[in-house]
Amino acid sequence: MSTLTKPNHIGRKISRIRELRDMKQEALAQALGISQQTISAIENSESVEEERLIEVAKALGVTVEAIKNFSEEAAINYFNTFNESPNNYFGLNHCTFNPLDKLMETVEENKKLYERLLQSEKDKIEYLEKLLQQK
């Protein structure tokens, strides 16, 4: 019987969650302070002791219940909900502001700051000239 057809194959669930989080076995192993081979063995195990499962869940940033209740179908349904939003284009939410307007605001702010700096430098030069004339 393959691991894909066993609904409670904890190791396979750990593997799929790790893959969905874009994490390599080496990274998970390093987070747990164990070897990559040990991670491979865990992912091939149908059951994992509770203490180890708690450590793995913490390293993956999920709860133990999330691992135990994980299913491919639920994960697919979860990610498909993002595509059902009417303001969603290519998986990204539509901006509520015009990015070019924001850019122009930044340009104007920089221009004002530059003008203040320039005025400050003029004031400094004027002050230094007065000091030189007094000597």
UniProtKB/TrEMBL annotation:
Residues 14-67 form the HTH cro/C1-type domain. Keywords: Coiled coil, DNA-binding. GO terms for molecular function: DNA binding. Residues 100-131 form a coiled coil. The keyword DNA-binding applies. PROSITE patterns: HTH_CROC1. It comes from the Bacteria. Pfam families: HTH_3 (PF01381). PANTHER family: DNA-BIDING PHAGE PROTEIN, TRACRIPTIONAL REGULATORY PROTEIN-RELATED-RELATED. This is XRE family transcriptional regulator. It comes from Flavobacterium circumlabens. The lineage of its organism: Bacteria, Pseudomonadati, Bacteroidota, Flavobacteriia, Flavobacteriales.
